[in-house]
Amino acid sequence: MPEGTICNKRPVASREDLDALLADSNGKKYYAEMEELDVDAEKLWATIQKTMKSRTKTWLDICAHCGLCADSCFLYSVNERDPKQVPSYKIQSTLGEIVKKKGNVSNEFMRMCMDTAWSKCTCCNRCGSFCPYGIDMGVMFGYLRGLLHSQGFVPWELKIGSGMHRLFRAQMDVTVEEFVDTCEWMVDEALEEWPCLEIPVDKEDADIVYMINAREAKHYPEDIVEAAILFHVAGENWTMPSEGWEMTSLSMFAGDWEACKMQVETVYGAMERLRPKRMVATECGHAYRATVIEGPYWAGRPDGQPPVECLHYVEWVAEALETGKLKIDPAKRIKEPVTLQDSCNYVRNAGLRDCGRIIMKHIAEDFREMAPNKEHNYCCGGGGGFNGIGRYRKQRNVALKMKREQILATGAKFVIAPCHNCWDAIRDLEEEFEIGIRWSFLKPLLIKMLVVPEHLLPQE
């Protein structure tokens, strides 16, 4: 079968396409059609010849199969050191074979590649830190995902997510009107406690434009108002765009590079339209990576930089605490043992290793590091789209074991996770293993600890 009705090589192009996917409970029909999907070997090889750059070719050629990457991979460790979980094996047995065979591979092989690319690698890029040649399997798996997507071999949830970005420029169907209404509603809810609070929308030439994860607008609107409160107390001149506020990219997880470009150009368009001095990204690792690290290349920006200076939320919080824009009441600091989850995407992949420690210095009395930590920390267990794919839930739950052991070793029962994927994984970890922990983003913790200037308090 060259093409299924919902599992095919065509990207989502209409609301009808998206609704057909959404109507397929758990992707049952989608995966059945996938088993009959033809591989277009000619197109696959043409894509490789056009898109595979010298770095990837060199990495495939020079891998010595030494196995030093094995212990760097948490999935290898938690899966009883299965040789098929060694990063070099995983990439050579998938992408390496596609290249060797010049795209002449079977449907069954492509489905194996899909299972490997999305359930045996989170693209955390930790292996690249330990390879003596600097080979990064995470980067190559990202490329492999793109090849698989182009042939229709992509998990059902990510075909939906990528389609959302194509249609709505967000991972969820939130319209401009709904977003603005949500901001107004959240301000109204908070005015009694925080007089004069605002969420300025489309304010030009502000010092900060704040951008978020669509889940906050759709499911966690309190996160938006918490950010507003902290900007308010810090005295920031800030705004949010009515369009282009969504930084995340399920398209990146899906390997839909065209949709990645469409998404990030919408974000950059908001920056260029409003002309802020800086952008502050919400507590989301992959949103930061998609917009700040990968985005400039998707958008074809010659300097490799976004239109304005960009900060992850941990950077802004660390700066605000150090400069005194935000002051913490010493009596309200966290007294119990607490640990911190380092997100792969803004710590290992963006170098923001020190920001979390600066924050913990201000807010915690008994901060306990995970081991390893900072740029050597392990993935939460749910990155790279792993959290959201029902087909691989059992494998994802096994993957959570590494983070479980890291947390237990600290003796802390409280985990701060300034990243949506990490927050989700740690929530699910507790649900799965019941180790008795709590977890939180930074914003609600900071609000409880703030020294609030008198003029910002409600008047009797």
Order of the strands making up the biggest sheet: 2-1-3-4
Distance between the termini: 72 Å
Give the ordered list of helices and strands: HHHHHHHHHHEHHEHHEHEHEHHHHEHEH
Share of helical residues: 40-55%
Which structural class fits the helix and strand makeup?
Answer: mainly alpha
Task: Describe the sheet with the most strands.
Answer: 4 strands, parallel
Poorly predicted spans: none
The total of helices stands at: 22
Give the strand content.
Answer: 5-15%
How many structural domains are formed by the residues?
A: 3
Shape summary:
globular
What's the rounded overall pLDDT mean?
96
Radius of gyration: 22 Å
Q: How many E strands?
A: 7
Domain 4Fe-4S ferredoxin-type: 60-135
Keywords: 4Fe-4S, Electron transport, Iron, Iron-sulfur, Metal-binding, Transport
InterPro entries: 4Fe4S_Fe-S-bd, 4Fe4S_Fe_S_CS, Cys_rich_dom, Helical_ferredxn, HmcF
GO molecular function: 4 iron, 4 sulfur cluster binding; metal ion binding; oxidoreductase activity
What would you say this structure looks like, in words?
The protein is mostly helical and 460 residues long. It folds into three domains: 116 residues, Fumarate Reductase Iron-sulfur Protein, Chain B, domain 2, CATH 1.10.1060; 156 residues, no CATH class; 120 residues, Rossmann fold (3-Layer(aba) Sandwich), CATH 3.40.50. It contains 22 helices and seven strands. It has a four-stranded parallel sheet with strand order 2-1-3-4. Strands 5-6-7 form a three-stranded parallel sheet. α21 links the parallel β6 and β7. α6 crosses α8. The chain is globular, with a radius of gyration of 22 Å. The N and C termini lie far apart (72 Å). GO terms for molecular function: 4 iron, 4 sulfur cluster binding; metal ion binding; oxidoreductase activity. InterPro entries: 4Fe4S_Fe-S-bd, 4Fe4S_Fe_S_CS, Cys_rich_dom, Helical_ferredxn, HmcF. It holds the Pfam family CCG. Keywords: 4Fe-4S, Electron transport, Iron, Iron-sulfur, Metal-binding, Transport.
